[in-house]
Amino acid sequence: MSAAKPNDELVFLPLGGSGEIGMNLNAYGYGPADDRQWIIVDIGVTFGREDTLPGVDLVLPDPTYLEERREDIIAIVLTHAHEDHIGALGWLWPRLKAPVYATPFTAALLREKLKERGLLDKVKLTEIPLKGNLKLGPFDIDFVTLTHSIPEPNGLAIRTPLGLVWHTGDWKIDPDPLIGETTDEAALRAMAEEGVLAMVCDSTNVFVDDHAGSESDVRKRLIEIVAKCKGRVAVTAFASNVARIESAIMAAKAAKRTVCLVGRSMHRIVGAAQSVGMLQDIPAFVDEAESTELDPENVLYLCTGSQGEPRAALSRIARNEHRHVNLRQGDTVIFSSRVIPGNETAIHGLYNAFLERGVELITADDHPVHVSGHPGRDELKQMYAWARPRIAVPVHGERRHLIEHVRLAHELQIEQALAPKNGDLIRLAPGPAAIIDEVPAGRIYVDGQVIIEAADEALTERQRLGEEGAINIALAIGAKKHNIVAGPNATVRGLSMGDEEELEDALDELERVAEGAFSRLSHSDREDDEAVEANLVRAVRKAAEKLWGKRPLVDVSVLRV
Amino acid sequence: MSAAKPNDELVFLPLGGSGEIGMNLNAYGYGPADDRQWIIVDIGVTFGREDTLPGVDLVLPDPTYLEERREDIIAIVLTHAHEDHIGALGWLWPRLKAPVYATPFTAALLREKLKERGLLDKVKLTEIPLKGNLKLGPFDIDFVTLTHSIPEPNGLAIRTPLGLVWHTGDWKIDPDPLIGETTDEAALRAMAEEGVLAMVCDSTNVFVDDHAGSESDVRKRLIEIVAKCKGRVAVTAFASNVARIESAIMAAKAAKRTVCLVGRSMHRIVGAAQSVGMLQDIPAFVDEAESTELDPENVLYLCTGSQGEPRAALSRIARNEHRHVNLRQGDTVIFSSRVIPGNETAIHGLYNAFLERGVELITADDHPVHVSGHPGRDELKQMYAWARPRIAVPVHGERRHLIEHVRLAHELQIEQALAPKNGDLIRLAPGPAAIIDEVPAGRIYVDGQVIIEAADEALTERQRLGEEGAINIALAIGAKKHNIVAGPNATVRGLSMGDEEELEDALDELERVAEGAFSRLSHSDREDDEAVEANLVRAVRKAAEKLWGKRPLVDVSVLRV
Lengths: 561, 561
Hints:
The structure is a homodimer of 561-residue chains. Chain A has 561 residues and is of the alpha/beta class. In chain A, strands 8-7-6-3-2-1-21-22 form an 8-stranded mixed β-sheet. A 7-stranded mixed β-sheet of chain A has the order 9-10-11-12-13-19-20. In chain A, helix 15 packs antiparallel against helix 17 (529-548). The model of chain A has no long low-confidence stretch (mean pLDDT 96). At the A-B interface, helix 11, helix 13, strand 24, helix 14 and strand 25 of A face helix 11, helix 13, strand 24, helix 14 and strand 25 of B.
């Protein structure tokens, strides 16, 4: 590696994930302030919430700062295939256009995403083998094998002329991860010997005291539990956890049950896993239609929808709306998953529906059928002991996680610890680490097929439409005398009087009010569309508030004839 | 008590709360099937959720079945003043019109509600003393003192010629409730001696193994914690828990801090408590404006908003938008409350905001600063041991709670246990308990100031408006030639192209599409408003889906001139 030049700096810039769990986008820059070269590490999404962002499908980090420097972006490097690390690539790549590097399983899933977005031929995607190395300008990157809840989780040892940054990505310490190797302790110890300038580290479970636990424990329990089940068994798990999927398959095999995959992403992940050599020696699956011919005690359904997503397989099964899968008295559903905060009501709705039909439930509440993929406090301590960084930079968390992680780093006597916010440009070297700039950062949204800004007025309008409804008043005004020649006609949406007739009366009232407001306009105002609209809107709004106790959006359409 | 007549039956009918936590409405009927007399016990609300019911303020049990029998309703009896037990009275009383009975604190809060709804002079509200008795037709009702998380929680011992029903209402076993007496064990034991036909019982915490814990423990810890705080202290708690409020006041006093009440419902509940003789010997409060003149170590703010409600005091303080209360580095916020499922994100948002400013947080996650008001499994067992009912009827819970409660009752060898659904009419006597009918039950909504049915189309329209937006096309058609003489004019709401100019182009495109669709109509279709609308709606919808990848609501306003 060449020596650092006098004005060189090594900087770290999180644009997503430092302030929320999800939507990770991290960048490292190297060079003098006016001529940095960049690599991007991960580029993920989070999901819109119906209560605050109705109709928004995906939330992405705003890449504007990097987009303006895209000539200087050498690479986009992906640590692993979870949506919060790769999900934004298909949307943001056209604005960044850098080559992409990933290990085989991540690359397999990414290819499908790129295909969906019509980008497969455009993106230069290079597969890196596990424990591979990548030399990109001033960056020399080792892929370090870790364990997590998806195949091929990699940390990145990023060497630069100004020092080595250990970027963990998402990890836990699983002594027996079932698929893939265990944590590459040797690499971590070697790194520490070499000297780690900074560790940029997962903070998700900093409030969890003990270890995450091992996938192999879950496998044992699933085998035990499924062996005891009498009727049909359905297991729901996060599809991307291939080790878990394999465990369910092995539990089925041990109990002489044939596995039926239910749900699109189950098929997608199993396909991707098999394409890179995983899940090879497993019994054949049965398809949904054929599964109905099996005796109840000979089938195991492996389903998506553990979070109660209304359109996922499990919700349809719970509502008894699934074409092929019917669960009833004596059958069992195993939730080999956790409750993601915010999904309680939906998941409890599933529980209620299944219990109502006499279906037995096994959940992580009282059975060890799930383990987290992120490091608890003990594991974090172990990682600091291995890597011995001079600087701790917690990422991947809300403010409370990052702040707590800084406290932990101080406890562990790490020389320096900084909890960055998205957009904080941190100089890691030379000199002590410091936030040297705040660059534009934020969220953008995938709304249908359009990418929009967080501040887009359409979003506040939609929230208001959802809560308050809409009124439209159309009227035709004569070109000569400027009097009403047709209408005003009122249309309402999302507003009820609880009774059809009363609603008709309310519409009549709105039309009367609009007409009255028009009649009070001066002659010159009547010639002015904007004046007509403003006055009628005001009057109709007031009337609506009286009628419904609500503040609907009111539009007036003036036609001049 | 007179003897039962040959055809007499005693029935129980839950219309709310058996299938959800919240919105309790229970009724007891006595008499022959065609001539029953009814009492209603509790009449509560639950709250609308922005994700599934945007804009709906309150959710109420549908009272139709009882409304149709309102001549035979002798009384509405309230067990305690929580919203999920009294909140619907102001909305549903006009449809039921029965006299209301409650203990003094409940009556005090109810009066305010009735005043808001203009019903204070109409409702006959009778105050019953604690441990009082009420004779109503075939029902002879003892108010039995219990403990809960609000003053004056009463169970009802309902005697009828066909047996005694023990209706617990909400309860826990608090050996030192601080305000009010402890659980009236003597009354419970006496009831058991007399023979309890059925116990209708709270199921909220049936999945919680241990005891709820005592308010007095929380008081001790609050006093200890506040004593150690250095800067300003804010305590947030459910306002209706007057014992907790008193604990915070005493913790302040012990630490030489003056209490400042922040938030309307804090003032309201403290007022109601004082009006019935509680919170008498407490130091004077300081008002918000004056509080700013106190030294930080001499003030304690008692705030509403523990659930992260965006408009409540605590959220405004967290966002630093409160006029008088400013918290900063070195100050402390104590969440003497629990996280109600579904509110995680909002509450964690508060945590993040406070931590960001260096404010210390004390929460029930790691400090014993909150106890539940509902009985854990141990307490349920104790209650069954006391009351020894022949029939267990779990209420106040989702299906999963009620089903688990039935399992518990079977474990305890209760002769019979039934988990009712809202609308199940259960004959409790004579003979074994059985569901003898399913009557109309459901939810209705307070939407603005209108009460609407759950199936009201306005609600699905609003959900769609919120997610997909709205388009209106107005056009004027000449009366003679049936050609377009003005328009079509497109208006969109809640739809963005990410760019003003592109939105203009999209509007032009919609207008072109509408015009094109009109031009393809036959002459006779052009004369028919419905045909014009249907065809234009179809064409514009398709165009919108292409432009935005969304399915907005499309309306076409045809004006004939």
